[in-house]
Amino acid sequence: MREPTEPGPTPLRATAAPAGPGGASPRASSASAEPGSTLPRVSSAPVVSLRGVSKRFGGVRALVDVDVDVHEHEVLAVVGDNGAGKSTLAGVLAGAHRPDSGQVLVDGVPVVLDSPAAARALGIATVFQELALVNDLDVVENLFLGHEVGSGVFLDEVEMERRAWQVLDQLAASVPSVRDPVRTLSGGQRQVIAVARALLGSPRVVVLDEPTASLGVRQTAEVLNLITRLRARGHAVVLISHQAGDLQAVADRILVLRLGRVHGAYTGETSYEDLLAAMTGAVRPGSGTPMKADQARGSGTGR
Ligand SMILES: Nc1ncnc2c1ncn2[C@@H]1O[C@H](COP(=O)(O)OP(=O)(O)OP(=O)(O)O)[C@@H](O)[C@H]1O
């Protein structure tokens, strides 16, 4: 079905998950930058792009003409002051907010993300700040909630437990037991469980909305390690964060939103002072730090 507001190619509805991390994307090696993009150029094709995306809530312009590209093997941080549009951007990628205008593209093909299920089917998983874990259920039950393995009323607990450990091992997660209720876990471990649940759908893009917001130093370090591992495994990570330490530790590129617009794009090495100046509008829009493509991409560079 064609997007009602947009001319151009027919958008895809979610019918099958595209190639996941580790699997080659058919378009992954072509040039990606386009005229007029506010983002610095990078060397491979984006997995997901937003083009001219706008979203209003009543009289509030939450996103205005936003262009962004998301690449595999990369952590793209999205920063901005309160109300800058960060969560709305996450919501568009998650299929929770339908843009009023503009396009979402997966592998360069326009798609319709009109539900979280549609986004997941197209390889985009989002972990919101409220992790939506059920406190009294154990780790396995939370991971497979609604997607239980087994037939009829008989659940294959052994298989679910095996898969739970498998995904947690992939993340090098230190969880004492997968049979403990998640309320007994630390904030960092709960974040890991929420990410592990997202990974069970084999997404290419993982969107994390303020994953360290309420965590202590050690738990934050756990989550930042987790993000590094996601990138090393080939995922594209979109990190919505307020935390300077998060950006310095893991971001390859940093997109600054201000009043719903892209204010500039910066390298991961940009000082927090410079980012703050951009977030608060103390520097002109579009004056992001120029950077080389390989600086921008991360790709297991050991950052
Ligand atoms: N569901 C909604 N209904 C009405 N207005 C909304 C809704 N969601 C967001 N907004 C408004 O859109 C603007 C952008 O909000 P958004 O939550 O995306 O910003 P943010 O950068 O994530 O802010 P914060 O850091 O405070 O969470 C704000 O003015 C907000 O009040």
TrEMBL record:
CDD domains: ABC_Carb_Monos_I. It comes from the Bacteria. This is Sugar ABC transporter ATP-binding protein. One of its GO terms (molecular function) is ATP binding. Residues 1-44 are annotated as: Disordered. Transmembrane segments: none annotated. Residues 48-284 form the ABC transporter domain. Keywords: ATP-binding, Nucleotide-binding. Residues 11-37 have a biased composition (Low complexity). InterPro entries: AAA+_ATPase, ABC_carbohydrate_import_ATPase, ABC_transporter-like_ATP-bd, ABC_transporter-like_CS, P-loop_NTPase. Residues 1-10 have a biased composition (Pro residues). It comes from Myceligenerans pegani. It holds the Pfam family ABC_tran.
